[in-house]
Design a protein that fits this description.
GO terms for molecular function: kinase activity. Its EC number is 2.7.13.3. It is an enzyme of class 2 (transferase). The chain crosses the membrane at residues 38-59. It catalyses: ATP + protein L-histidine = ADP + protein N-phospho-L-histidine. With 322 residues, this protein is α+β, with helices and mostly antiparallel strands. It has 2 domains: 3-104, no CATH class; 182-322, Histidine kinase-like ATPase, C-terminal domain (Heat Shock Protein 90), CATH 3.30.565. Helices cover 63% and strands 11% of the residues. The protein has 8 helices and 5 strands. It has helices spanning 3-23, 34-71, 87-150, 153-180, 183-188, 190-201, 221-242, 277-288; strands at residues 207-212, 246-254, 257-264, 292-297, 303-309. It has a 5-stranded mixed sheet with strand order 1-2-3-5-4, covered by helices on one side. A hairpin with a 5-residue loop joins strand 4 (292-297) and strand 5 (303-309). Helix 3 (87-150) packs across helix 8 (277-288), helix 6 packs parallel to helix 7 (221-242) and helix 7 packs antiparallel against helix 8 (277-288). The radius of gyration is 34 Å and the shape is rod-shaped.
Length: 322
């Protein structure tokens, strides 16, 4: 029965009972006797109680829908309001769930376009840094070498310092270009790219242990890029914010695809810590390939970033690989 007919039926019953009392043998004396007042009050209280119960039961699904709308987050897809209640309420909940389906699909499509454009821009900037700025600094370094060979003894020290500064700038340009577009990922695959990433972040204060388990399934190019970018962002956050001196970078096959784990021994995110731009970026990338992403404190302390690529993110058997 719809909410309209429930409330209408309840009100109709109340009016019918009132009319029957007026037309029936029941009378009310003047002044009102205590017994008569008691009967009237009991009848009124009963009608109000039944009316409250009907409204509470009928409007409860709307309260659940309001809470579901408040908690909705497109970065945590899949949560839907339970369809229940009268016909009108159930139809409203189904409409809301359909709207969430469309919003999640449209957001995934727009995020994929945005991240694809971002990767193309990264590639363009990396190429320009390597081809233009890198070659210019290389030419400057060669010129400084010729100047140092002909410079007087009292100037060779300063020219040498200029050479070292130029060489350091050239190395930094190459490092930035590698981080913008990891050529090793395109040329040698994910495992070699992760090995290079671990070596890059291993410094005097941070040790990155790489553990790649055998039996990894074949991955699409998009999946490998997302795994690499998530590992890169997780290691960057660890180096900048965690205060850790040891990081575990692990890639292994899982029952539902492949799992990436980045876990450190630092301070951890804390119970009240929110998700910053880096974590939100990792979550968005995971959504692009249908992967499950979790971020939080590790079992033994520190921070753990886990990404598990679902079977839908993997290429079909016999499909074209990169």
């Amino acid at each position: 029965m719809s909410l309209f007919w429930r409330i209408f039926a309840l009100n109709a019953v109340g009016l019918v009972v009132a009319a029957a009392l007026l037309l029936g043998p029941v009378t009310v004396s003047t002044p009102v006797l205590p017994a008569e007042a008691f009967v009237v009050l009991v009848g009124l209280a009963s009608l109000l109680a039944v009316n409250a119960v009907v409204l509470r039961v009928g409007l409860a699904p709307l309260g659940r829908l309001a809470r579901a709308m408040t908690d909705a987050d497109l970065l945590h897809p899949g949560a839907r309001a339970v369809v229940s209640g009268p016909v009108e309420t159930a139809e409203l909940i189904r409409t809301y769930n359909s709207m969430l389906d469309r919003l999640e699909a449209e957001r995934a499509t727009s995020a994929a376009r945005a991240l694809s454009a971002q990767e193309r821009e990264r590639h363009r900037i990396a190429r320009e840094l390597h081809d233009e700025v890198g070659q210019t600094l290389t030419a400057v370094l060669l010129q400084l070498k010729r100047v140092a060979d002909r410079a007087p003894d009292d100037l060779r020290g300063e020219v040498g310092q200029a050479q070292e500064a130029t060489r350091a700038g050239l190395d930094e340009i190459r490092r930035i270009a590698r981080r913008l577009r990891p050529g090793v990922l395109d040329e040698l695959g994910l495992v070699s790219a992760l090995r290079s990433l671990a070596a890059e972040f291993t410094t005097h204060g941070l040790t990155v242990g790489l553990d790649v388990r055998p039996g990894l399934p074949a991955l699409t190019e998009e999946t490998e890029l997302v795994l690499y970018r998530v590992a890169q962002e997780a290691l960057t956050n660890t180096a900048r914010h965690s205060g850790a001196d040891r990081v575990e970078l692990r890639l292994r096959p899982a029952a539902d695809g492949v799992e990436l784990l980045v876990r450190d021994n630092g301070r951890g995110p804390g119970p009240a810590a929110g998700e910053g731009a880096g974590v939100l970026g990792m979550r968005e990338r995971a959504l692009l390939i249908g992967a499950t992403f979790t971020f939080g404190p590790g079992l033994g302390g520190g921070t753990a970033v886990r990404l598990r690529a679902a079977p839908a993110a993997l290429p079909p058997p016999g499909g074209d690989l990169r």
